[in-house]
Amino acid sequence: MIVAVHQPQYMAWGGYFHKMDTADAFVFLDTVQYKKNEFQNRNLIKGPRGPQWLTVPVLYRFGQTINEVMINNSVPWARKHLAALVSCYGRAPFFARYIGDFEKLLTDTYEGISELNIAAAQLIARLLGIETALAVASDLPQVDNHRDRRLVEIVKLLGGDTYLSGAGGREYIDEDVFKEGGVKLSFQEFCAPNYPQLFGAFAPNLSIIDLVFNIGPNALDYLRGTVP
User: Fold this and answer.
1) pTM (two decimals)
2) Distances (CA, A) of 53 to 42, 117, 205
3) What pLDDT, on a 0 to 100 scale, did the predictor assign at position 144?
4) At a CB cut-off of 8 Å and minimum separation 6, what does 8 contact?
5) Nearest to residue 59, comparing CAs of 78, 84, 34, 83?
6) What span, in angstroms and rounded, lies between the C-alpha atoms of 163 and 47?
7) I need a surface site. Which of 133, 179, 186, 191 has the fewest CB within 10 A?
8) What is the 3-state secondary structure (H, E, C) of the chain?
9) Sign of CA pseudo-dihedral 22, 135, 124, 47
10) pLDDT (0 to 100) of residue 146
11) Which of 86, 98, 89, 139 is nearest to 115 (CA)?
12) What confidence score (pLDDT) does residue 142 get?
């Protein structure tokens, strides 16, 4: 059984969902330190002027874990994000099919950034047709805080025998920790696809939203590299 673990991100890119799809179980790692100015509260979509950020305002203090960071709901961010989706994707082939799902997501109330990100990922996984079992680290028994031993223990808690790392993990993962823990280690192989987009030249590595609105039901085939 293959287990993947990743911090909850806001409207994550295609590689995030490819990893989720490749695994048998995927864990949202919400118990590690929040990283400012990364993808835990923002992501890129494409508009008439090119890529633009969707950013969720947060109330963050240094040292907080992701599941401790609250959203600044005094700012009408959700309304702005929905308006941006309409502006950027109103003419996309599958806009009408999916906009209601994102409207419901963005009109619900969320207190924490982790809660929002997990809800968004669950929605997108459903729209893509990903059937991987999903779990949240803060719902699991407490594990070792060491970076790699934590991963080994999470895999074992879920009954897995293999940990699926992103390709970048080759640079920092201590493979001996996994060997000692009796967990196999594998690395994601993902080639970000090109696909028809609005607004001129192709822009890579956007939020999965771009792929969903432009490609629709075939989006997962593009992530898997199985498009004829």
Assistant:
1) 0.95
2) 7, 16, 12
3) 75
4) 28, 29, 30, 40, 66, 113, 114, 117, 118, 121
5) 34
6) 37
7) 191
8) CEEEEECCCCCCEHHHHHHHHHCCEEEECCCCECCCCCCCCEEEEEECCEEEEEECCEECCCCCEHHHCEECCCCCHHHHHHHHHHHHHCCCCCHHHHHHHHHHHHHCCCCEHHHHHHHHHHHHHHHHCCCCEEEEHHHCCCCCCCHHHHHHHHHHHCCCCEEEECHHHHHCCCHHHHHHHCCEEEECCCCCCCCCCCCCCCCCCCEHHHHHHHHHHHHHHHHHCCCC
9) negative
10) 82
11) 139
12) 83
Identity of the amino acid at 172? Y
Check if the beta carbon of residue 56 is closer than 8 Å to that of residue 84.
Answer: no
Token pair for residue 103?
């409207």
Q: Residue 157 carries which side chain, given as an amino acid letter?
A: L
